[in-house]
Amino acid sequence: MNETFAFWQQTLPSLLDGFYLSLQVTGASLLLGIPLGLLLALGLRSRQLLLRAPLLALIEVGRGASVIVLLQFVYFGMPTAGFTFSAFVSVTIAFTWCTAAYTSEILRAGMEAVPQGQREAAQALRLNGLDTLRLIILPQGLPISIPALLGFAILMLQASSLAFVVALPEVMSKAQLVGSNTFQYMPIFILVALMFAAICIPATVVVGHLERRLSRHF
Amino acid sequence: MTGDMLLAILGGIQWTVLLTLTSLAIGVLLGAGLCAMRTSGIRLLDLTACGLILGLRAVPPIVWLFLIFFGVGSGIVQVSAFQAAAVGLGLITAANMAEIFRGALAAVHRGQWEAARALSLPARWRMLDVIAPQLLRVSLPSIASYAIGLLKDTAIASTLGVPEIAFQATHVSQMTFQGLATFAFAGCLYIALSIPVAWASRWADQRMRSRVAR
């Protein structure tokens, strides 16, 4: 047991570096992906089929294909088309795509939960489309989406460990490196699991609490 | 893309499907157990199950897979890549199934329990003949959408070397340097595989609904 703790103490700094990178990748993808998801959700409400069709394709592929395949598509595939990105940029592009696709559905559901009467009232007040969205729909629709968005953020943090396949030096890659050097696979992956659990368990509890509180009001 | 490349990737389908079904079966069985513990009314069992569910879901799938394949596998027991992937994904599925079943259990009307008790059905038959069929009907849509998610998650098993779709795609792209077409095809394959699952679930749901509709 003491040996394990000594081993953990020795490897923790390197793993924390990796975990910090995982958090960065997750943060970047959420910051880019959620606004993009909102744009996708709004774009889907357009009556123009020519606009709707490509957006729908983007969403369906982002949700339907495996994250790991999206990741490899960007990192190993795009260079064939003449675009070469670093591992960090590739991971951010793939995760942003995935985030935008999933959050567009979450945000759409949130906006649809706003009662129809609110829209009609806005129309009766002769608010234009942008003002209806800005002043009436979004302020009511976004709070409804928040627990689902936070739940998705937790899943994204977990998914960031998949960046391992494109050799981004995040926490999994670091752990695998330590494991293959020392053959101490069990302790090192338990440490990684504990790091994720330390963040995800409290976060899940908080999100569950928020969800219950919100559902009381509606 | 030549025919050989396509065939190589298509060859991964059987492993993807087999892995999905195996982990789903493990998940449904263990999930039913976890759900029974959570709803047993015994505080110690409830808390244990609650902790297990939280813990299983808090750790990313790839970490579970590596923990089982390299961690457990390099120690006492020999674990093949497929076994490690099936057990790892199965455990995560179990945690999610337990929550799905618990939600469905709440949706089965109280009167059904009371009526079964009034008929003095033994506890086992009360569960099997009265509650379980309704439970299945209520939880089927959630199980199907989880199964579709699981189908995509099996791609993670490619990191252990299970020769499923994503693994074959990686292999083909390394051989041919045609990453774009290869991974696009693999991505479409996952979407194509999930369509029949969604379709079958909707069909079964409608059939079961029409049988109990009044």
From TrEMBL, chain A:
Keywords: Amino-acid transport, Cell membrane, Membrane, Transmembrane, Transmembrane helix, Transport
ATP-binding among keywords: no
InterPro entries documented for this protein: AA_ABC_transptr_permease_3TM, ArtM/GltK/GlnP/TcyL/YhdX-like, MetI-like, MetI-like_sf
Residue intervals passing through the bilayer: 20-43, 55-75, 81-102, 144-168, 188-210
Database matches in SUPFAM superfamilies: MetI-like (SSF161098)
Bilayer topology: Multi-pass membrane protein
Compartments where located: Cell inner membrane; Cell membrane
UniProt-recorded name of the protein: Putative amino-acid ABC transporter permease protein YckA
Native species: Pseudomonas reidholzensis
From TrEMBL, chain B:
Transmembrane segments: 6-32, 44-70, 180-200
Transport in keyword set: yes
Coiled coil: none
UniProt entry keywords in alphabetical sequence: Amino-acid transport, Cell membrane, Membrane, Transmembrane, Transmembrane helix, Transport
UniProt-listed Gene3D superfamilies: MetI-like (1.10.3720.10)
Pfam families: BPD_transp_1
Protein's cellular compartments: Cell inner membrane; Cell membrane
Start and end residues of each ABC transmembrane type-1 domain: 13-201
Protein name as catalogued: L-cystine transport system permease protein YecS
